[in-house]
Amino acid sequence: MAVEGQRLFVGGRWVDPDGGHYAVTDPATEETVGWAPEASREQTRAACAAAGEAFGAWSRTTAEERAAILGRAADLVRGQLVAHAELAQAETGATTGTARGMQVGVGAARFRRYARVEPAEWAIPPQINEAGPMGRAGVMGALAVRQAVGVVACITSYNNPWANPAGKIAPALAMGNTVVVKPAPQDPLSVYRMAEALEAAGVPPGVVNVVSGEAVEVGEEVVASPDVDMVSFTGSTAVGQRIAEVCGRGMKRQLMELGGKGAAVVFDDADVGSAVAGIGTTFSFYSGQICTAPTRVLAQRGVYERLVEQLGAYAGRLKVGDPRERDTVVGPVISAAHRDRVESYVELGRKEGAVVLAPDGQLPDRGFYIGPTVLADCTNDMRVAREEIFGPVVVVIPFDEEEEGVALANDSDYGLIDYVWSGDVAKAFRVARRLRAGGVGVNTVGRNMEAPFGGFKKSGVGRDVGSYALHAYSEVQAIVWPG
């Protein structure tokens, strides 16, 4: 199913890349999926300029016109769901269910979500002014209006080449912005399929542009471009910090969804089976390559041994292998380099004193596979407990009292999504409010897709999803007049 000779999408045209092409590798087979384009600096600048030129006309279209285009794009993506999922699976190594439901399916749903018109202005109570040095007495009316930011650079992560870009592009377009998309170098081909759907749905030339490349210069050029007014980035904290420095110098708006080390606080009165099933999603969703995963388990002493035993047994039952096979739960990680990185963390944990629980099964000879692993008897000062591993690895740390559990959960550089398991709902919500995280799951790893999403501390800046994304991709303008 190789996709050969992919072209860039710049200013409404499909253009050959100046830098040639590079191979996109299937993590499950190590075979070439297709050839992705390598944009030059000049082509990247041209994409940003095209978005800048298209902004004026696009921002003046009605919200209804923009919503109609997004709705058609959602239908086009959904209509090719199986084919798109096969490509996404080949690029990322995701299981079939994940590729169809959580990648392409969520991507289509996000276009559909923003294919509806929401109020972009609201009245502010009038202000009565007394007579004084500034003039006569009077009434001042006011209106708050959401305006498009301008050109938005959407720089996306490799773990979900559909849901992640769609979650940026759709609300940005809905608010009247134009976009330049820089997909992750590991799996950019799916994003070009998304651009094709948007083009077919009627997006005017220059409103959506896609440039890719293995070279860091492509991303650097997009972020630094004077045509770009906002950067929306999903990826590592280290890269996010470098992007934020550039944004700061240019006073560009930024939306940063960065790393995570989700704490799962499991109390003695918790439903252990529910907790194990929730924590175990770390192994299955993208093979642990997901920033929201509950990878740092804090288990109260009374339940600690039972939880470790059940979590280890759970990991041992999961089939690791070809993601195209129906019963596979854990597929490969994205690359050989990342596999080696995750394996080095497991070995580091062993050296730091962790008890390693890993399945004995044979891993496939080809592909970038890692078996689901539990690192038990950890302490919160170990590197494996403090650093984001981004693989199918969970660390487990015991604690005694509620105060200690909360303190351990908050003793982290990250604060994206935490979790609490307890049979006492009042306690669970009390603890949830004390956690320094952008979101907290109470007895679940599920998410409400209208709830704001984003992190505290080094997990990011800003909030998106649902109506919060419309806020993120807009500026608020105040209009006042005498009554």
From TrEMBL:
Gene3D superfamilies, sorted: Aldehyde Dehydrogenase, Chain A, domain 1, Aldehyde Dehydrogenase, Chain A, domain 2
InterPro entries: Ald_DH/histidinol_DH, Ald_DH_C, Ald_DH_N, Aldehyde_DH_dom
Residues in Aldehyde dehydrogenase domain copies: 14-479
Keywords, sorted A to Z: Oxidoreductase
Family matches, as Pfam families: Aldedh (PF00171)
Superkingdom of source: Bacteria
Record's protein name: Aldehyde dehydrogenase family protein
